């Protein structure tokens, strides 16, 4: 370290307070190179400039370029953590590798648009109609707290897959968990909504009674030396108080007292107004194209009825008219195939056809209707950049981000995207699994196809003996033995 620079920096370190805060390291050009937080600024920053102190490679490299630093005081460690994160996102210092990807905090996401809302964690806040709490500084504490919330209120988490068993009856769990918790396992949507409302009141700090009971339980377990249970209740209290602190100035939009169907009904009413329709659209179908580097080009179609997913009516399409990467042609093909079939069956057209994309994608969809001599009801696009609704004539509608009609279209579009990507990934994985046969010398496409057809898949081929491989038409015993040995070595 240069002598004059060392004296200047050490003199500055001596002036640092013994307080929480954030320190900002700069290079000789005044560029921010690193931002960190500290419970004690003087103690933490002095570590960088101790003579003879053995730093790791990254810190050693950082110390060499530090020419100056600033600091910002914080009231406590939690505030320092949040300030550090905000400054890192603002300045993007090259030595900050851990917090650049925005994955440092968890958000609690409540899927209020679902008939049975679930409580799950997310890393990013989206305009998807869900309700968000947080961020949480401690992931483990937040997760432990959510587990306690589940027991307190009988809510569903991310691992739940409830099953509809009647007109308005749901079975929440089909395994042993149904007997573990104190709440009824078979409920109506309204009964479950009441549970969710109580849990949300607790998270918002409105349920003082539950908070006080939780504190009493923590104290009781602590007095009885059951520190493990006491710690769980402590984490629950900490998470709730943290939620209140983080959301004190944020307006939380979501009325869980409205059922998902009521929310959907309101969204459809808003969509009717936005599109100038005579009545609220009851059926929406949305298309999305997915591919990986121009290969495995596929499309998905999802259908929403009454503003809610009708998953049994989702469809997947493999692109047949060409090979390669052309989203416009792919959109034209699948729209034509879908609605030519409905026309042939005499089935009604959906009230709205939603295209994932802008004016060009909408134009290719309209061309498909024209080619098939089919009259659609309404065709619109949703352009991602500004979330603009694109009309058939090229006109645009820009709704506010909080508009329920836009939120509904976003949910439909995102579901189509998820469904298309999952199909594309399945095909890609299947292709990768089967590609091992391409590496076996002398095995042409016909014999490869014969092997896969005979066994039904690559997993069965790998499990077959040499004798069983030889039973395939066109595969002699010598080839079968060589293939068996090849697959055995590949597995090892």
Describe what you observe in this structure.
By secondary structure, the protein is an alpha+beta fold. Helices cover 47% and strands 18% of the residues. The chain has helices at residues 3-14, 41-46, 57-65, 77-91, 139-153, 177-180, 189-204, 208-223, 227-247, 260-275, 327-345, 359-371, 404-434, 445-455, 458-463, 466-469, 477-491, and strands spanning 21-26, 32-38, 68-73, 106-110, 118-122, 131-136, 156-157, 163-166, 169-171, 186-187, 283-292, 295-305, 308-309, 315-318, 352-356, 379-383, 388-390, 396-397. Strands 11, 12, 13, 14, 15, 16, 17 and 18 form an eight-stranded mixed sheet that branches. Strands 6-4-5-7 form a four-stranded mixed sheet. Strand 1 (21-26) and strand 2 form a beta hairpin. The longest helix has 31 residues, at 404-434. The two termini are 52 Å apart.
